[in-house]
Inverse folding.
């Protein structure tokens, strides 16, 4: 059974801090890993990672995948209160579906 | 505007009364999927569809049915809803789920079964 584990489950930091969110996975026939941001509505797409060691970057957010150690990290630098959200990690693998982790609830305090 | 729409957005119903949540996308996506989101359990896939007339079970299909008669629509049917199906439901679509393509999510349907 495919499995995605995110850590920490919850994180509170101050504005301006840098945070690292973790996602580890066990999946047969791994195809891709995706990161989503969910505020009080539907998840919105952040990154899709398929190759090890290649960093994807969008503004203050970046992510990298390690297919050997089966994990990914999502970094957010110079955090802002608007970064407060639940960050979801998901993988596609053996079946054609998508398996999500439980998410990391990030709170940025002013 | 490219989007995934769901209806209704909120629904309160009683045990055993059949209901359908509609999902429609205007992006000509082949892949569509239904998820439920529950506190502490995250997003779990219910059913997905790779294309018209092709549907497959996800992780939690019990108590649900789907159909894919047209490419743009993927309704979720609860024949006899029960209180444990109280949840937040999301529909999503993408070009081809097999490649892990970006999934676009609908706004969600909050269902309460009394």
């Amino acid at each position: 059974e495919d499995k995605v584990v995110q850590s920490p489950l919850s994180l509170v930091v101050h504005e301006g801090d840098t945070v690292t969110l973790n996602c580890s996975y066990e999946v047969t026939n791994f195809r891709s890993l995706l990161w989503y941001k969910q505020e009080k509505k539907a998840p919105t797409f952040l990154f899709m990672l398929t190759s090890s060691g290649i960093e994807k970057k969008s503004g203050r957010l970046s992510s990298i995948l390690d297919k050997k150690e089966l994990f990914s990290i999502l970094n957010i630098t110079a955090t802002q209160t608007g970064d407060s959200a639940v960050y979801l990690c998901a993988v596609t693998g053996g079946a054609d579906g998508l398996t999500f982790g439980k998410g990391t609830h990030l709170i940025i305090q002013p | 505007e490219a989007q995934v729409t769901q209806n209704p957005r909120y629904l309160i119903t009683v045990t055993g009364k059949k209901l359908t949540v509609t999902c429609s996308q205007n992006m000509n996506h082949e892949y569509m999927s239904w998820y439920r989101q529950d506190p502490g359990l995250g997003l779990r896939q219910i059913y997905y569809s790779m294309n018209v007339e092709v549907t497959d079970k996800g992780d939690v299909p019990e108590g649900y049915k789907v159909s894919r008669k047209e490419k743009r629509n993927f309704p979720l049917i609860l024949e006899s809803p029960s209180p444990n199906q109280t949840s937040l439901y999301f529909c999503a679509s993408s070009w081809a789920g097999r490649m892990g393509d970006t999934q676009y999510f609908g706004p969600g349907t909050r269902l309460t079964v009394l």
Remarks:
- Chain A has a mean pLDDT of 91.
- Residues 25 and 60 of chain A are 24 Å apart (CA to CA).
- The longest strand of chain A covers residues 19-26.
- Chain A has no helices and eleven strands.
